[in-house]
């Protein structure tokens, strides 16, 4: 797919609506995250440090992958300062940014849960902007299964599907939050779920990045995100919970 073809699709979208959705996503997600962070027993300075490390790490994580994506994505990354961004890299960058800050400052309190609901809501609302602007568009499909975004080709509405799935995932995370379940693991439930969802959705998204071993570049990032989520969930699951499961099954726990 050529850059000219992509430009035709984007030209038929609405940049003002896209910007409106982006502003709304950051406002709503940021507000909810701030609400969930109120319980942190941290000083004002430490709070600012955590948020700043997540923000800066997220910015770097959003931008850096495009330079290694090969093909058109890499060309755009090197040619425009507002090059392609990926939310998956932002999630990973924000997590590792906060982890680095806590390591350097000796901050031991787990702040991850406060970012779960707000981040998911931000992602869901943000995809509405993708629908409006026609970015992140889907593959070519029969006319009955998609819509014309301006290039005369019916395309699968992958942005709408992802938005619906993310609102559903937000509902699930909200239920976990209100029930006090999956403590210190809710953000990584988001990582695992979104990584797996995004891996599948990439088969329905038009590809203009490179491939590695038959999989799209962003599918590998999706698998990395899911792997980090799964590892952190396993790492943070209380030993007592697994001990109880073994004992209830009649096992012997040393």
Strand content: under 5%
The main sheet orders its strands as 1-2
Number of strands: 4
User: What value does the Rg take, in angstroms?
Assistant: 20 Å
Can I get a quick summary?
This protein is mainly α and 254 residues long.
List the helices and strands and how they pair.
Elements: H1 3-11, H2 15-36, H3 44-63, H4 71-79, H5 87-105, H6 116-133, E1 147-148, E2 154-155, H7 158-178, H8 186-201, E3 211-212, E4 215-216, H9 217-236, H10 239-248
Antiparallel strand pairs: 1-2, 3-4
Describe the structure.
The structure is a single chain. With 254 residues, this protein is mostly helical. It has one domain. It has helices at 3-11, 15-36, 44-63, 71-79, 87-105, 116-133, 158-178, 186-201, 217-236, 239-248, and strands at residues 147-148, 154-155, 211-212, 215-216. It has a two-stranded antiparallel ribbon. A hairpin with a 2-residue loop joins strand 3 and strand 4. Helix 6 (116-133) runs antiparallel to helix 7 (158-178), helix 7 runs antiparallel to helix 8 (186-201) and helix 8 (186-201) runs antiparallel to helix 9 (217-236). The radius of gyration is 20 Å and the shape is globular. Residues 240-254 have low confidence and may be disordered.
